[in-house]
Amino acid sequence: MMVSDNRRFKNLSPFELKDKLIRMATRKSGRIMLNAGRGNPNFLATLPRSAFFHFGQFALAESERSFSYLTAGIGGHARMEGIEDRFDRFLSEKRGHDGIRFLNRAISYVRDQMGLSAAAFLHEMAEGILGCHYPTPPRMLPLSEQITGHYVLNEMTGGTLAREEVDFFGVEGGASAMAYIFNSLKQNGLIEKGDKVALGMPIFSPYIEIPHLEEFGLEEIGIHATQETDWQYPKEELEKLKDPAVKIFFCVNPGNPTAVKMDDASMQAIAEIVQNDRPDLIIITDDVYGTFADDFRSLFAVCPRNTILVYSFSKYFGATGWRLGVIGMHKDNAIDELVRKLPPKLTAELAERYSSLTTDPSNLKFLDRIVADSRLVALNHTAGLSTPQQVQMVMFCLFCLMDEHDHYKQTVKNILRRREATLYKALGVAPPNDPNGVNYYTMLDLKSICRTLYGDEFAEWMAVRSSSSEILFRIADETGIILLPGQGFGLQRPAARASLANLDEYQYVSIGRSLRKMADEYYQAFLKTHN
Question: Which segments does the entry list as coiled coil (predicted)?
Fold first, then answer.
Protein backbone atom coordinates (compact mmCIF):
# COMPACT_ATOMS: atom_id res chain seq x y z
CA MET A 1 0.00 0.00 0.00
CA MET A 2 1.41 3.38 -0.97
CA VAL A 3 1.92 6.24 1.50
CA SER A 4 -0.72 8.31 -0.26
CA ASP A 5 -3.21 5.49 0.22
CA ASN A 6 -2.52 5.39 3.96
CA ARG A 7 -3.03 9.09 4.50
CA ARG A 8 -6.74 8.85 3.92
CA PHE A 9 -6.97 7.09 7.32
CA LYS A 10 -5.34 9.94 9.24
CA ASN A 11 -8.62 11.14 10.81
CA LEU A 12 -9.67 7.71 12.06
CA SER A 13 -9.68 6.94 15.77
CA PRO A 14 -6.66 4.76 16.69
CA PHE A 15 -9.11 2.01 17.58
CA GLU A 16 -10.69 2.15 14.12
CA LEU A 17 -7.30 2.42 12.42
CA LYS A 18 -6.28 -0.69 14.35
CA ASP A 19 -8.73 -2.76 12.31
CA LYS A 20 -7.06 -1.56 9.08
CA LEU A 21 -3.64 -2.47 10.48
CA ILE A 22 -4.85 -5.90 11.58
CA ARG A 23 -6.10 -6.70 8.09
CA MET A 24 -2.73 -5.72 6.68
CA ALA A 25 -0.79 -7.64 9.35
CA THR A 26 -2.75 -10.85 8.78
CA ARG A 27 -2.80 -10.95 4.98
CA LYS A 28 0.45 -12.93 4.78
CA SER A 29 -0.26 -16.56 5.55
CA GLY A 30 1.85 -18.40 8.10
CA ARG A 31 2.86 -15.25 9.98
CA ILE A 32 1.86 -14.64 13.59
CA MET A 33 0.33 -11.24 14.26
CA LEU A 34 1.57 -9.47 17.41
CA ASN A 35 -1.12 -6.99 18.43
CA ALA A 36 0.58 -4.56 20.80
CA GLY A 37 -2.21 -2.08 20.15
CA ARG A 38 -4.67 -3.70 22.54
CA GLY A 39 -4.88 -2.47 26.12
CA ASN A 40 -6.62 -5.63 27.34
CA PRO A 41 -4.14 -7.39 29.69
CA ASN A 42 -3.24 -11.06 29.30
CA PHE A 43 -2.99 -11.49 33.09
CA LEU A 44 -5.89 -11.64 35.52
CA ALA A 45 -6.60 -12.09 39.21
CA THR A 46 -7.65 -15.73 39.70
CA LEU A 47 -8.13 -15.97 43.48
CA PRO A 48 -11.10 -13.56 43.77
CA ARG A 49 -12.67 -15.32 40.78
CA SER A 50 -12.23 -18.67 42.52
CA ALA A 51 -13.90 -17.20 45.60
CA PHE A 52 -16.76 -15.91 43.44
CA PHE A 53 -17.46 -19.29 41.87
CA HIS A 54 -17.20 -21.15 45.18
CA PHE A 55 -19.50 -18.65 46.85
CA GLY A 56 -21.97 -19.19 44.03
CA GLN A 57 -22.26 -22.81 45.13
CA PHE A 58 -23.04 -21.72 48.69
CA ALA A 59 -25.65 -19.26 47.46
CA LEU A 60 -27.25 -21.90 45.27
CA ALA A 61 -27.53 -24.26 48.23
CA GLU A 62 -29.13 -21.45 50.25
CA SER A 63 -31.71 -20.96 47.52
CA GLU A 64 -32.47 -24.67 47.26
CA ARG A 65 -33.13 -24.87 51.00
CA SER A 66 -36.22 -22.69 50.63
CA PHE A 67 -38.10 -24.99 48.24
CA SER A 68 -36.38 -28.27 49.01
CA TYR A 69 -39.62 -30.20 48.81
CA LEU A 70 -39.81 -29.50 45.06
CA THR A 71 -37.93 -31.50 42.46
CA ALA A 72 -38.28 -29.19 39.46
CA GLY A 73 -35.06 -27.25 39.95
CA ILE A 74 -36.80 -24.38 41.74
CA GLY A 75 -35.27 -22.43 44.57
CA GLY A 76 -36.23 -19.48 46.72
CA HIS A 77 -34.52 -16.50 48.29
CA ALA A 78 -31.67 -16.86 50.77
CA ARG A 79 -32.59 -16.46 54.44
CA MET A 80 -30.45 -14.51 56.88
CA GLU A 81 -31.37 -16.54 60.00
CA GLY A 82 -28.56 -18.99 60.73
CA ILE A 83 -26.64 -18.10 57.58
CA GLU A 84 -23.30 -17.72 59.41
CA ASP A 85 -23.48 -21.24 60.82
CA ARG A 86 -24.42 -22.68 57.45
CA PHE A 87 -21.55 -20.80 55.82
CA ASP A 88 -19.10 -22.16 58.40
CA ARG A 89 -20.27 -25.70 57.61
CA PHE A 90 -19.92 -25.00 53.89
CA LEU A 91 -16.33 -23.81 54.40
CA SER A 92 -15.53 -26.87 56.49
CA GLU A 93 -16.94 -29.27 53.91
CA LYS A 94 -15.09 -27.59 51.02
CA ARG A 95 -11.78 -26.92 52.80
CA GLY A 96 -8.59 -27.38 50.81
CA HIS A 97 -9.42 -25.04 47.92
CA ASP A 98 -7.72 -21.64 47.59
CA GLY A 99 -11.08 -19.97 46.92
CA ILE A 100 -12.50 -21.44 50.14
CA ARG A 101 -9.53 -20.23 52.16
CA PHE A 102 -10.08 -16.80 50.64
CA LEU A 103 -13.75 -16.82 51.69
CA ASN A 104 -12.80 -17.88 55.21
CA ARG A 105 -10.40 -14.94 55.48
CA ALA A 106 -12.88 -12.59 53.83
CA ILE A 107 -15.70 -13.20 56.30
CA SER A 108 -13.25 -12.65 59.16
CA TYR A 109 -11.98 -9.42 57.57
CA VAL A 110 -15.47 -8.06 56.96
CA ARG A 111 -16.58 -8.84 60.51
CA ASP A 112 -13.44 -8.19 62.57
CA GLN A 113 -11.59 -5.50 60.61
CA MET A 114 -14.42 -3.57 58.96
CA GLY A 115 -16.97 -4.00 61.75
CA LEU A 116 -19.75 -5.10 59.40
CA SER A 117 -22.38 -7.70 60.18
CA ALA A 118 -21.21 -11.08 58.88
CA ALA A 119 -24.79 -12.30 58.51
CA ALA A 120 -25.85 -9.18 56.58
CA PHE A 121 -22.76 -9.49 54.36
CA LEU A 122 -23.39 -13.16 53.56
CA HIS A 123 -27.05 -12.50 52.86
CA GLU A 124 -26.31 -9.55 50.54
CA MET A 125 -23.65 -11.53 48.69
CA ALA A 126 -25.86 -14.64 48.38
CA GLU A 127 -28.86 -12.73 47.05
CA GLY A 128 -26.53 -10.68 44.88
CA ILE A 129 -24.73 -13.57 43.23
CA LEU A 130 -28.06 -15.28 42.55
CA GLY A 131 -29.27 -12.09 40.83
CA CYS A 132 -32.79 -12.57 42.18
CA HIS A 133 -33.55 -8.89 43.00
CA TYR A 134 -33.17 -5.55 41.29
CA PRO A 135 -30.15 -3.70 42.69
CA THR A 136 -31.52 -2.01 45.83
CA PRO A 137 -30.78 0.81 46.28
CA PRO A 138 -30.13 1.33 42.57
CA ARG A 139 -26.93 3.27 43.16
CA MET A 140 -25.23 0.31 44.87
CA LEU A 141 -25.94 -2.48 47.34
CA PRO A 142 -25.25 -1.10 50.87
CA LEU A 143 -22.38 -3.35 52.00
CA SER A 144 -20.99 -3.59 48.49
CA GLU A 145 -20.68 0.21 48.49
CA GLN A 146 -19.01 0.11 51.90
CA ILE A 147 -16.38 -2.45 50.90
CA THR A 148 -15.79 -1.04 47.41
CA GLY A 149 -15.51 2.44 48.88
CA HIS A 150 -12.82 1.34 51.35
CA TYR A 151 -10.79 -0.24 48.57
CA VAL A 152 -11.12 2.62 46.08
CA LEU A 153 -10.30 5.32 48.65
CA ASN A 154 -7.36 3.32 49.93
CA GLU A 155 -5.92 3.00 46.41
CA MET A 156 -6.87 6.43 45.05
CA THR A 157 -6.27 8.64 48.09
CA GLY A 158 -4.07 6.60 50.41
CA GLY A 159 -6.90 6.57 52.91
CA THR A 160 -6.85 10.35 53.38
CA LEU A 161 -10.61 10.53 52.83
CA ALA A 162 -12.98 8.69 55.14
CA ARG A 163 -15.38 6.21 53.60
CA GLU A 164 -18.31 8.08 55.21
CA GLU A 165 -17.41 11.22 53.25
CA VAL A 166 -17.86 9.70 49.78
CA ASP A 167 -20.76 8.22 47.79
CA PHE A 168 -20.24 5.60 45.07
CA PHE A 169 -22.30 4.44 42.11
CA GLY A 170 -21.46 1.04 40.60
CA VAL A 171 -21.40 1.20 36.79
CA GLU A 172 -20.62 -0.98 33.78
CA GLY A 173 -16.97 0.03 33.52
CA GLY A 174 -15.29 3.37 32.88
CA ALA A 175 -16.91 3.85 29.46
CA SER A 176 -20.44 3.85 30.86
CA ALA A 177 -19.29 6.11 33.69
CA MET A 178 -18.24 8.77 31.19
CA ALA A 179 -21.41 8.40 29.15
CA TYR A 180 -23.54 8.76 32.27
CA ILE A 181 -21.57 11.73 33.65
CA PHE A 182 -21.60 13.79 30.47
CA ASN A 183 -25.26 13.04 29.87
CA SER A 184 -26.23 14.24 33.36
CA LEU A 185 -24.04 17.33 33.11
CA LYS A 186 -25.99 18.21 29.98
CA GLN A 187 -29.40 17.27 31.39
CA ASN A 188 -28.79 19.43 34.45
CA GLY A 189 -27.62 22.50 32.52
CA LEU A 190 -24.06 22.35 33.82
CA ILE A 191 -22.70 22.22 30.26
CA GLU A 192 -24.22 23.78 27.16
CA LYS A 193 -23.20 23.89 23.52
CA GLY A 194 -20.26 26.19 23.05
CA ASP A 195 -18.90 25.73 26.57
CA LYS A 196 -15.22 24.95 26.91
CA VAL A 197 -13.88 21.64 28.20
CA ALA A 198 -10.17 21.27 28.94
CA LEU A 199 -8.64 17.89 28.10
CA GLY A 200 -5.37 16.72 29.63
CA MET A 201 -3.47 15.75 26.48
CA PRO A 202 -2.46 13.24 25.27
CA ILE A 203 -5.53 11.28 26.31
CA PHE A 204 -7.54 8.13 25.51
CA SER A 205 -8.76 8.96 22.02
CA PRO A 206 -12.54 8.42 22.54
CA TYR A 207 -12.39 11.13 25.20
CA ILE A 208 -11.22 13.56 22.52
CA GLU A 209 -14.31 12.69 20.49
CA ILE A 210 -16.92 13.12 23.27
CA PRO A 211 -16.92 16.96 23.37
CA HIS A 212 -17.36 17.13 19.59
CA LEU A 213 -20.47 14.96 19.51
CA GLU A 214 -23.53 16.83 18.27
CA GLU A 215 -25.42 16.40 21.55
CA PHE A 216 -22.67 18.21 23.47
CA GLY A 217 -21.02 20.58 20.98
CA LEU A 218 -18.28 21.65 23.40
CA GLU A 219 -15.16 23.60 22.54
CA GLU A 220 -12.03 21.61 23.29
CA ILE A 221 -9.08 23.25 25.07
CA GLY A 222 -5.91 21.14 25.17
CA ILE A 223 -3.80 21.02 28.34
CA HIS A 224 -0.67 19.52 26.84
CA ALA A 225 1.91 17.39 28.59
CA THR A 226 5.07 16.74 26.58
CA GLN A 227 7.91 14.26 26.53
CA GLU A 228 10.27 17.13 27.33
CA THR A 229 8.41 17.66 30.64
CA ASP A 230 8.31 13.89 31.35
CA TRP A 231 4.61 13.90 30.44
CA GLN A 232 3.73 16.39 33.17
CA TYR A 233 1.57 19.47 32.52
CA PRO A 234 3.68 22.65 32.34
CA LYS A 235 2.51 25.51 34.53
CA GLU A 236 1.59 27.65 31.51
CA GLU A 237 -0.70 24.88 30.26
CA LEU A 238 -2.46 24.55 33.60
CA GLU A 239 -2.96 28.31 33.65
CA LYS A 240 -5.61 27.76 30.95
CA LEU A 241 -7.85 26.34 33.69
CA LYS A 242 -8.19 29.81 35.17
CA ASP A 243 -10.43 30.81 32.28
CA PRO A 244 -13.96 30.93 33.75
CA ALA A 245 -15.34 29.77 30.39
CA VAL A 246 -13.67 26.38 30.97
CA LYS A 247 -16.40 24.37 32.67
CA ILE A 248 -14.61 20.99 32.94
CA PHE A 249 -11.08 19.65 33.25
CA PHE A 250 -11.10 16.07 31.96
CA CYS A 251 -8.02 13.86 32.39
CA VAL A 252 -6.71 10.31 32.64
CA ASN A 253 -4.29 9.75 35.50
CA PRO A 254 -1.96 7.88 35.07
CA GLY A 255 -2.15 8.77 31.43
CA ASN A 256 -3.23 6.80 28.41
CA PRO A 257 -1.16 6.54 26.21
CA THR A 258 1.73 7.81 28.34
CA ALA A 259 1.28 5.55 31.42
CA VAL A 260 2.73 8.31 33.63
CA LYS A 261 1.04 9.51 36.80
CA MET A 262 0.59 13.19 37.58
CA ASP A 263 3.31 14.38 39.95
CA ASP A 264 2.73 16.19 43.23
CA ALA A 265 3.69 19.58 41.79
CA SER A 266 1.08 19.36 39.03
CA MET A 267 -1.63 18.26 41.43
CA GLN A 268 -0.76 21.02 43.86
CA ALA A 269 -0.88 23.58 41.04
CA ILE A 270 -4.36 22.38 40.05
CA ALA A 271 -5.49 22.42 43.68
CA GLU A 272 -4.31 26.03 44.04
CA ILE A 273 -6.13 27.07 40.85
CA VAL A 274 -9.33 25.49 42.18
CA GLN A 275 -8.94 27.09 45.59
CA ASN A 276 -7.89 30.56 44.47
CA ASP A 277 -9.38 31.04 41.01
CA ARG A 278 -11.87 28.33 40.02
CA PRO A 279 -13.96 27.00 42.92
CA ASP A 280 -16.62 26.21 40.27
CA LEU A 281 -14.35 24.05 38.06
CA ILE A 282 -15.62 20.50 37.50
CA ILE A 283 -12.83 17.91 37.32
CA ILE A 284 -13.42 14.46 35.85
CA THR A 285 -10.55 12.04 36.39
CA ASP A 286 -10.27 8.52 34.98
CA ASP A 287 -7.87 6.71 37.31
CA VAL A 288 -8.07 3.19 35.88
CA TYR A 289 -4.28 2.81 35.83
CA GLY A 290 -3.77 4.25 39.32
CA THR A 291 -3.60 0.81 40.91
CA PHE A 292 -0.46 0.00 38.91
CA ALA A 293 1.37 2.90 40.59
CA ASP A 294 3.11 2.93 43.95
CA ASP A 295 1.98 5.68 46.33
CA PHE A 296 -0.66 6.89 43.89
CA ARG A 297 -2.81 9.90 44.67
CA SER A 298 -5.77 10.91 42.57
CA LEU A 299 -6.89 14.49 41.98
CA PHE A 300 -9.84 13.33 44.06
CA ALA A 301 -7.46 13.32 47.05
CA VAL A 302 -6.42 16.96 46.62
CA CYS A 303 -9.59 18.46 45.11
CA PRO A 304 -12.34 16.24 46.54
CA ARG A 305 -15.12 18.87 46.38
CA ASN A 306 -14.60 19.53 42.66
CA THR A 307 -13.66 16.10 41.37
CA ILE A 308 -15.78 13.29 39.96
CA LEU A 309 -13.70 10.14 40.36
CA VAL A 310 -14.00 7.29 37.87
CA TYR A 311 -12.29 3.99 38.60
CA SER A 312 -12.57 0.82 36.52
CA PHE A 313 -11.59 -2.69 37.61
CA SER A 314 -10.93 -3.71 34.01
CA LYS A 315 -7.15 -3.48 33.62
CA TYR A 316 -5.76 -4.23 37.10
CA PHE A 317 -7.81 -7.38 37.58
CA GLY A 318 -7.89 -8.42 33.92
CA ALA A 319 -11.66 -7.95 34.00
CA THR A 320 -12.56 -6.00 30.88
CA GLY A 321 -15.32 -8.50 30.12
CA TRP A 322 -16.88 -8.10 33.57
CA ARG A 323 -17.65 -4.39 32.96
CA LEU A 324 -16.99 -3.18 36.50
CA GLY A 325 -16.42 0.41 37.62
CA VAL A 326 -17.50 3.09 40.05
CA ILE A 327 -18.20 6.80 40.06
CA GLY A 328 -17.21 8.47 43.33
CA MET A 329 -18.28 11.90 44.59
CA HIS A 330 -17.63 13.65 47.88
CA LYS A 331 -20.84 14.19 49.83
CA ASP A 332 -19.96 17.90 50.16
CA ASN A 333 -19.17 18.76 46.56
CA ALA A 334 -19.11 21.80 44.30
CA ILE A 335 -21.24 20.14 41.62
CA ASP A 336 -24.25 19.89 43.95
CA GLU A 337 -23.64 23.54 44.79
CA LEU A 338 -23.67 24.49 41.10
CA VAL A 339 -26.99 22.66 40.69
CA ARG A 340 -28.49 24.63 43.58
CA LYS A 341 -27.42 27.89 41.87
CA LEU A 342 -29.05 27.14 38.52
CA PRO A 343 -31.50 29.75 37.14
CA PRO A 344 -35.04 29.49 38.60
CA LYS A 345 -36.60 28.42 35.29
CA LEU A 346 -34.16 25.54 34.83
CA THR A 347 -34.46 24.60 38.50
CA ALA A 348 -38.23 24.29 38.06
CA GLU A 349 -37.81 22.17 34.93
CA LEU A 350 -35.41 19.84 36.74
CA ALA A 351 -37.76 19.61 39.72
CA GLU A 352 -40.39 18.33 37.32
CA ARG A 353 -37.91 15.92 35.71
CA TYR A 354 -37.01 14.28 39.02
CA SER A 355 -40.36 14.71 40.80
CA SER A 356 -41.17 10.98 40.61
CA LEU A 357 -38.08 10.17 42.70
CA THR A 358 -38.44 12.43 45.72
CA THR A 359 -40.68 15.04 47.27
CA ASP A 360 -37.69 17.39 47.40
CA PRO A 361 -36.05 17.13 43.95
CA SER A 362 -34.13 20.39 44.41
CA ASN A 363 -31.92 18.63 46.97
CA LEU A 364 -31.38 15.48 44.95
CA LYS A 365 -27.62 14.79 44.81
CA PHE A 366 -25.97 15.06 41.43
CA LEU A 367 -24.72 11.47 41.80
CA ASP A 368 -28.28 10.28 42.31
CA ARG A 369 -29.29 12.30 39.24
CA ILE A 370 -26.67 10.36 37.29
CA VAL A 371 -28.25 7.12 38.53
CA ALA A 372 -31.74 8.26 37.47
CA ASP A 373 -30.61 9.69 34.13
CA SER A 374 -28.91 6.38 33.32
CA ARG A 375 -32.43 4.93 33.06
CA LEU A 376 -34.23 7.99 31.66
CA VAL A 377 -35.44 8.80 35.20
CA ALA A 378 -38.75 6.97 34.71
CA LEU A 379 -36.96 3.61 34.97
CA ASN A 380 -34.84 4.62 37.96
CA HIS A 381 -36.01 1.58 39.94
CA THR A 382 -34.27 -0.67 37.41
CA ALA A 383 -31.00 1.28 37.47
CA GLY A 384 -27.73 0.04 38.86
CA LEU A 385 -25.00 -2.46 38.12
CA SER A 386 -26.23 -6.06 38.09
CA THR A 387 -25.91 -7.67 41.51
CA PRO A 388 -23.65 -10.58 40.40
CA GLN A 389 -21.28 -7.96 38.98
CA GLN A 390 -21.31 -6.15 42.31
CA VAL A 391 -20.43 -9.39 44.12
CA GLN A 392 -17.42 -9.97 41.86
CA MET A 393 -16.40 -6.35 42.45
CA VAL A 394 -16.52 -6.94 46.20
CA MET A 395 -14.37 -10.07 45.84
CA PHE A 396 -11.78 -8.05 43.89
CA CYS A 397 -11.81 -5.35 46.57
CA LEU A 398 -11.44 -7.78 49.46
CA PHE A 399 -8.61 -9.52 47.60
CA CYS A 400 -6.58 -6.30 47.66
CA LEU A 401 -7.70 -5.06 51.08
CA MET A 402 -6.47 -8.33 52.62
CA ASP A 403 -3.20 -8.29 50.63
CA GLU A 404 -1.26 -6.32 53.23
CA HIS A 405 2.08 -6.70 51.44
CA ASP A 406 0.77 -5.89 47.95
CA HIS A 407 1.90 -9.23 46.54
CA TYR A 408 -0.48 -9.03 43.59
CA LYS A 409 0.41 -5.41 42.84
CA GLN A 410 4.14 -6.05 42.89
CA THR A 411 3.78 -9.15 40.74
CA VAL A 412 1.83 -7.44 37.95
CA LYS A 413 4.11 -4.41 38.11
CA ASN A 414 7.16 -6.67 37.75
CA ILE A 415 5.55 -8.38 34.75
CA LEU A 416 5.11 -5.01 33.03
CA ARG A 417 8.62 -3.82 33.90
CA ARG A 418 10.23 -6.97 32.54
CA ARG A 419 8.30 -6.66 29.30
CA GLU A 420 9.35 -3.03 28.91
CA ALA A 421 13.02 -3.85 29.56
CA THR A 422 12.85 -6.73 27.09
CA LEU A 423 11.32 -4.60 24.33
CA TYR A 424 13.85 -1.79 24.64
CA LYS A 425 16.83 -4.14 24.96
CA ALA A 426 15.87 -5.81 21.69
CA LEU A 427 15.36 -2.38 20.11
CA GLY A 428 18.80 -1.30 21.28
CA VAL A 429 17.87 1.78 23.30
CA ALA A 430 17.47 2.39 27.01
CA PRO A 431 13.91 2.22 28.42
CA PRO A 432 12.39 5.36 29.93
CA ASN A 433 13.47 5.94 33.52
CA ASP A 434 10.57 7.88 34.99
CA PRO A 435 9.71 7.50 38.69
CA ASN A 436 6.12 8.43 37.81
CA GLY A 437 5.80 5.77 35.11
CA VAL A 438 3.48 2.81 35.59
CA ASN A 439 4.70 0.82 32.52
CA TYR A 440 1.31 -0.28 31.25
CA TYR A 441 2.02 1.36 27.88
CA THR A 442 5.16 2.76 26.37
CA MET A 443 5.40 5.58 23.86
CA LEU A 444 7.82 4.81 21.04
CA ASP A 445 8.90 8.27 19.94
CA LEU A 446 10.18 8.24 16.38
CA LYS A 447 12.73 11.07 16.62
CA SER A 448 14.08 10.04 20.00
CA ILE A 449 14.66 6.45 18.92
CA CYS A 450 16.29 7.50 15.63
CA ARG A 451 18.48 10.04 17.43
CA THR A 452 19.64 7.47 19.97
CA LEU A 453 20.43 4.88 17.29
CA TYR A 454 22.03 7.00 14.58
CA GLY A 455 22.25 10.66 15.58
CA ASP A 456 20.46 13.98 15.08
CA GLU A 457 20.80 14.23 11.31
CA PHE A 458 19.14 10.87 10.74
CA ALA A 459 16.40 11.74 13.25
CA GLU A 460 15.59 14.96 11.39
CA TRP A 461 15.63 13.14 8.04
CA MET A 462 13.21 10.55 9.35
CA ALA A 463 10.88 13.20 10.78
CA VAL A 464 10.57 14.79 7.33
CA ARG A 465 10.68 11.59 5.32
CA SER A 466 8.11 9.45 7.11
CA SER A 467 4.80 10.08 8.79
CA SER A 468 3.94 7.97 11.80
CA SER A 469 0.97 6.46 9.95
CA GLU A 470 3.20 5.37 7.07
CA ILE A 471 5.57 3.66 9.49
CA LEU A 472 2.73 1.94 11.33
CA PHE A 473 1.33 0.57 8.07
CA ARG A 474 4.77 -0.57 7.00
CA ILE A 475 5.38 -2.22 10.38
CA ALA A 476 2.04 -4.04 10.11
CA ASP A 477 2.66 -5.08 6.51
CA GLU A 478 6.25 -6.25 6.89
CA THR A 479 6.31 -7.61 10.45
CA GLY A 480 2.72 -8.32 11.49
CA ILE A 481 3.09 -6.00 14.51
CA ILE A 482 0.23 -3.68 15.48
CA LEU A 483 0.97 -0.38 17.21
CA LEU A 484 -1.38 2.59 17.65
CA PRO A 485 -0.55 6.14 16.44
CA GLY A 486 0.19 8.71 19.11
CA GLN A 487 -1.45 11.41 16.99
CA GLY A 488 -4.86 9.85 17.59
CA PHE A 489 -4.39 10.37 21.33
CA GLY A 490 -3.62 14.06 20.89
CA LEU A 491 0.14 13.66 20.80
CA GLN A 492 1.89 16.50 18.97
CA ARG A 493 4.81 14.52 17.52
CA PRO A 494 5.22 11.24 15.61
CA ALA A 495 5.04 8.34 18.05
CA ALA A 496 3.35 4.99 18.55
CA ARG A 497 1.72 3.45 21.62
CA ALA A 498 2.70 -0.09 22.48
CA SER A 499 0.82 -1.95 25.18
CA LEU A 500 3.07 -3.82 27.60
CA ALA A 501 0.11 -5.68 29.09
CA ASN A 502 -1.22 -8.03 26.46
CA LEU A 503 1.66 -10.11 25.05
CA ASP A 504 4.18 -12.51 26.51
CA GLU A 505 7.78 -11.52 27.18
CA TYR A 506 9.35 -13.35 24.24
CA GLN A 507 6.91 -11.59 21.90
CA TYR A 508 8.26 -8.21 23.01
CA VAL A 509 11.71 -9.46 21.95
CA SER A 510 10.26 -10.02 18.46
CA ILE A 511 8.73 -6.56 18.44
CA GLY A 512 11.96 -4.89 19.52
CA ARG A 513 14.03 -6.76 16.94
CA SER A 514 11.55 -6.07 14.15
CA LEU A 515 11.48 -2.36 14.92
CA ARG A 516 15.28 -2.24 15.07
CA LYS A 517 15.55 -4.03 11.72
CA MET A 518 13.21 -1.48 10.18
CA ALA A 519 15.19 1.41 11.69
CA ASP A 520 18.38 -0.06 10.22
CA GLU A 521 16.75 -0.25 6.79
CA TYR A 522 15.69 3.38 6.98
CA TYR A 523 19.23 4.30 8.02
CA GLN A 524 20.69 2.55 4.98
CA ALA A 525 18.29 4.54 2.80
CA PHE A 526 19.40 7.69 4.60
CA LEU A 527 23.07 6.92 3.89
CA LYS A 528 22.37 6.49 0.20
CA THR A 529 20.85 9.97 0.00
CA HIS A 530 23.85 11.49 1.79
CA ASN A 531 26.68 9.98 -0.25
Answer: none
